[in-house]
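[audit] Reproducing an earlier prediction to check determinism. Same input, same settings, fresh worker. If the tokens differ from the archived copy the diff job will pick it up downstream; this log only records the rerun itself.
[audit] input (564 residues):
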Amino acid sequence: MRKLFISAVLALAGALSAQFAGIAPAAAEELRIGISQYPTTLHPSTEASVAKSYVHAMTQRPMTVYDQQWELICMLCTELPSIEAGTAIPEDLPPEVEGAGDGRGIALRYTIQPDAIWGDGTPVTTRDVMFTWRSGRHPSAGTGNLELNKRIHAIDVVDDKTFVIHADRISFEYAAINDFRLLPAHIEEPIFDAAPNDYRNRTAYDTDPTNRGLYFGPYRIAEAVAGSRLVLERNETWWGKPPAFDRITILTIEQTTALEANLLSGNVDMIAGELGLTLDQALAFEKRHGERYQVVYEPSLLYEHIDLMLDNPILQDKRVRQALVYAIDRETINARLFEGRQTVAHSDVSPLDWVYSEDVKKYPYDPAKAGELLDAAGWSELRGGIRHNAKGEPLQLEFMTTAGSRIRELVQQVLQSQWKQVGVDIRVRNEPARVFFGQTVHQRRFTGLAMFGWGKGPEHIPRTTLHSEEIPTAANGWSGQNYTGFKNAEMDALIEAINLEVDRPKRKAMWDRLQEIYVEEVPVIGLYWRANPYILPQWLKGVRPTGQMASSSLWVEDWTVEDR
């Protein structure tokens, strides 16, 4: 019955597509975007998600960011600090600051865009800088960028718009403070000071999301219907280039088949590549409707993978983790589902990145090898096709992902079947994205395997996902993104050392070793590097995918409507 219903919806959408597809919206001042997930929170610094990043790219501006050419640029600041220009000055650390061990840090001078104003008319100032840093360092605030805020051991206020950050180390990317997302002190500071330990549950971004004073980008959020839609309207105080649309409505449609139907019916004008149709759907869509739409495929640094819960006794054995990788045929999955357009992920570094190691260990499809490893790990007795250990316990794991993502659920079924062939009993339990990301993954409630995607930037140091200090716990307010619970002293040391090494050849050698450890220890099963499909109307111009974690919507003011 469900299949018949979906078929009927698609048939109706196809009948309507000739009327709506490729035609500019009735009100040219509005753009309707479809995405497949709703942000679990709208606070800029907690619970990182692609959905939230996509929205905030239109309502705020990061201090610094990597652009479409993967070059670091200023957005909210006026000029990047530079040692050559004298605006980045190496310095000795004060005795009370431990730093990275060499006793040297760096002073970085930034100036906020002089015309930057919050949507309620309050200027964006160094007061916001100081509050963002103070709240970001609080151990129970639950900020995803806790490490960055901890590395900043002091901030000097020069004036309302200029400040100097004192960092506890000289990093190769010392000027990048991409995750330092300013918060409006005039709104958020009283909330934080009233109950710092409960701040994440009281923030105005979630209790009063249409407050104009929360935003300073080209748009502000004018309506927020949880799980359904966000309506963005022009921000009257925006200081930059005026955007083309008076209103942008972002509709959340979790079922990707329904997302496609909404596009064909004209209910949405475009589907975001960051969080929209899966690649297989886009390939099929292009064959049927490509002449009426722009279909753009962007190879990206989006890493589709499976986090393994290393607190699970079964998964604590490295041989089991390696066997799980040998038992899956990622090349065939890529060929049959994605027409070979997505690169198999052999490590957590993309072949598009200059630090990728060509010599990294590969795990070809080898069920026999998987069986040998499982035998050696003590899972040698077969009963009803399922392996058991000497205690009679079955080799059984729970496998979770986002419910409603058709391709993830299809990949999940294929993996479940392939693992069953080597005697692993996989139990599927999926959840809506808002629950899966907001609670299950974020608070490490999954017990076995969790499949989702990570967005990365160029030469992205995986501290938050792999360093042992980044394991979320109730005690640290669920800060950090090391959801697997991976602990490896050499990995910790490499992450710290890479950050400090300015010599590129030396840094590359460290990256090679980091990938060796990652692939050998298998805290995560890499699947593939996603190619994001953008489905755009013919009349929309200026959408430029970045291929990395910065959303295309960060340049929304460059989007235009072409007259027909």
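[audit] rerun output stored. Observation attached for the diff report: The chain has 16 helices and 21 strands.
[audit] end
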